[in-house]
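Lab meeting prep.
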Amino acid sequence: MTGRAICLLSGGLDSTTCLGIARDEGRECYCLSFDYGQRHTAELAAAARVAESLGAIEHRIVRFDLREFGGSALTSDLDVPKDRAAAQMATGIPVTYVPARNTIFLSFALAYAEVRKASEIFIGVNAIDYSGYPDCRPEFIQAFENMARLATKASVEGNGRITIRTPLIAMSKADIVRRACELGLDLALTSTCYDPDPEGRPCERCDACLLRCKGFQEAGIPDPLVT
């Protein structure tokens, strides 16, 4: 295996920072984004901007449609929750959870890593300031990595193994904002909102926007997307 890394890139604050960290560590970055029928497709344009800005070797967008199953406010006609208090966001799994999404994303990344002979997959999951998604927890990531060792040709043949890197998993949103700024990332290129307007502007009321706002405020740094 080489110094190549597959970087899952949504175009949001976390995945952008994760890509910045991979690049800062000297990795050759291959970015992977997904058009899965999500209502907030503005994030795909943001991902393309970020990948170009950070000099990704390649940026691929994989298309499939999770609206076939629904079950989430991001892939159905369910309303995206707005104006929720921090205590509400810290309790239970919200309707914006997309069933098995990170399992699906990591499976695609694993295949991409095998083809590109990448030794690492970077994913910007966070288990501190997040919306309670079960597939953002450290035990899920460890379980997937263990599975990958059984499922990949490189591991079976003893030619190396693929590691799942989660550099943000124990960081607060404020710490992520600070780290992004330390890396000199242009956060004006990002898109975090679950329910942006037709021009891609954030609603500033969904959980994702509120958590982002919390991070910037606690870091004492103005958010370039908020006027």
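Slide two material, second protein:
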Amino acid sequence: MNWCEHGMNRRISVKKYISCLLTLLLLGALSAQAWADAPTGSVQKGYLPAWSTALAERGSGEGGTAPQEADLRPVRIGLRYGDTGDRRADLSIKRGTGFSLGSFDENNTFQPLCSFEETELFVQADASWHLLIGEGGLSPLEAMAGAAEVGGFVGHFADGFHVLWGSFPTREEAEAALTGYALDGVCYAAPEGAELVCGRGILWYTEREETLGILAEGDSTPITAFGGDRYSGGFAFPIVNGSMQVVNVVALEEYVKGVLPYEMSASWPLEALKAQAVCARSYVVFRRDEYGDYGFDVTADTRSQMYRGLTAASERCNEAVDATRGELLRYQGELCETYYFSSDGGATENCRHVFGYDRPYLCGKLDPFEQAVDVSNNSWEIYRSSTELQSWLAGKGYEIGPVTEVEASYSDFGNVIALQCADAEGVSVTLDGRISYTGLGLDSCRFTVSGDGRGYRFTGRGWGHNCGMSQWGAYAMAQKYGYSYEDILGFYFTGATIG
């Protein structure tokens, strides 16, 4: 939908007049010196701000690009990773008949190897010594029969299947067991990256080049529980620096359904939820393989987007995802980096002043919409003493004495883009971009500073980095003014297209 087409009626000349008048008022009221005087005039339903840019028509024609198959492939989400990686992961089926073991290929498509009628199992990183019993290169059934005969377990190697027995912390203990039990085998050390899959009466060891994958099976859509949450799709367990990562591999649309309830309230207007769905989908496609060294695309926490699978599944959120299925935000055919945040307090900000680089569709603009609703946590005030400021700066690696001077630099939209702190000895520190507020533990970049050299009061509005889409602004646009999700995205992402 084109901005210029939305809300047109016989009063268009009046609207143009209101648009120009309101723009002048806002530019004056939200200048760097008087940013706190937010626009007070109401925005009429169907009103289109003069500073907005048209959201081009979607599709594969001019201004739009059809989604590519690679864009829509399944997503890998790191549930446990890095320092939070596990030595063991417990899985249980909440809906389904059993587990299939295999791996995920380069398109994140599951390639099965064998199946077990197990509803509970665990996977653990294996760094033990074992005994290889008898000949290798067996079929899965031969190996399982041999394992059952000696009370061992099945190992999957590059040349096929083997029977393994025991698990020992040292070679000496493995050799003692080999001799003591008179077994026909050899000692074997599990290399880094090996894993054990354990179920009721079943042990499965893998030393394949591919990362181990597990997928629940069943006639309907299977559901697997892990870590107190429920998930669709499968799981992969890459070993990184000796730590086992736990990765959920799930269809793109199912991923977005697992994000939406945690990034926006399911009770909010459907059009706002649709805008959020397009943002969440575009975000993950833009950031695919961002954590490739760990074996996944994005994290399940705020480093990327909050995601907890099916745990908070909502019909309303699912409706918003289904209604925008496959839709991505683009600028001149290229995927957009769809940042979003809670509230801007009156104006968004240029990407350059927030993240340090330019995005033509992430440009600051005055935002008159949030004022129409009661935004939670929209106003805040934080006091920092001179020594507290010194402590905050020290925590960021800056060497400075107790802070006796603080001076803020503002953008044309009234947001802080730099903060200079100095001590009594003349040592100064300049904080640019996001660090200008996060470095002092402030809630947003929209604030003023007052103080006397012994302490400073930071008074502000908004919650977040102010770059991209305001979630409360999206709520207001849909709830108070009846805008569509295309309108919302068109306002917050200048010149973007849906494709």
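Talking points for slide two:
Confidence is low (pLDDT under 50) at residues 1-42, 44-64.
The radius of gyration is 28 Å.
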